[in-house]
User: Fold this.
Amino acid sequence: MSDAPHILTLKIDDQDVSAVEGQTILAVARENGIAVPTLCFLKGLSPVGACRLCLVEIKGVPKLLPACVTRAAEGMEVTTDSPRLREYRRTILELLFAERNHVCSICVSNNNCELQSLARAQGLTHVRVPYRHPRLGVDATHSRFSADHNRCILCARCVRVCDEIEGAHTWDIMGRGIDCRVITDMNQPWGQSDTCTSCGKCVHVCPTGTLTEKGVAAAEMKKRQQFLPYLTAMREERE
Amino acid sequence: MSAKIRLATVWLDGCSGCHMSLLDIDERLLDIADRIELVSSPIMDVKGFPENIDLTIVEGAITNEEDLHKVLAFRKNTKLLMALGDCAITGNVPAMRNTFAIDDLYNRAYVENADAEKQVPGAVVPRLLDRTRPIHEVVPVDVYVPGCPPHADVIFYAIAELLEGRMPDPMKMGKFG
Assistant:
């Protein structure tokens, strides 16, 4: 009897919506056609709330909370769009652009980049903080793929897909704060990794031009992420 | 009809692709030509800096002392300043040199890769600034038109809106890259 899912009622952007207990605000919003910008989130991978783009306002809560990891609750009143949220989202994107060297014009992912699309969608006209221009390398030691750290936003999608879906856990994050880097194995060159299966899942979930296939020129890299919800659904069914 | 607007275009550290895209507006340029007085541009032979400019369109990033001198002079003499293209807005490809030390750049360009006269130039070539900067890091910018290069339609939209006295929102049509 008590096995029936507990249904919650809440408001998102003044719209009455219902949620199954345990659902995140992001999942409920998307089910109801309410757009919330995300970058590190990818359906099929565990959410981490790293990029903060999905921050929302919740009435009575002084802090902004990430919609991708905050569970819906009874009577909640959520606002997904406001001048304050737009300002935060723009600033987050500007900080991402300033942190490393995202030169869109010569990127293989130009026109197919989630960071670039979000900048446009959020109306980012320019970056108001000084660019850091760090000296970062490209790991092209793998026979099929390359990793351009200049374009990494540390969303950790590669880390998650490699661990949770492929089960290899080749990718991880090393360092702290501004010195964080994605690494393969024990910070060895990707081409010398003992654990990498060369499946390419990390390449296709990467939202920017960081992880790419070799042999593509500027604006030629198109990521294919359809496999992920499919694989996840198949596994859930089996369980 | 109101008086003609005084327009200047400036070419700093960029490849001139933005100016090419400006010319790609093609015959629509004729529609707005009688409303514009071009007072300075790389496609004209004008010495010095005109005054009382209504709109200055700047292509390119600020890389050397000459760029800095020009952008300061034009900003002083213009009502509105448009940053045209990714170099002007983000630094783009010219700013990739910022990851290197200036002495290494000079050495690479004028000594290591030179066939003859291996020396860093003194007076004739403008000195590089400490780093390549987008325009808004140095002077205020009123309109940003992104793209590498911006599409002719986006440039035309921005200019046409300004001619009508409206502030354009080029991000609606354009994008970085």
User: Anything to note?
Assistant: The CA atoms of residues 40 and 47 of chain B lie 8 Å apart. The helical segments of chain B are 17-23, 28-33, 65-77, 86-90, 102-112, 152-163. The domain at 5-99+129-172 of chain B is CATH 3.40.50.700 (Rossmann fold).
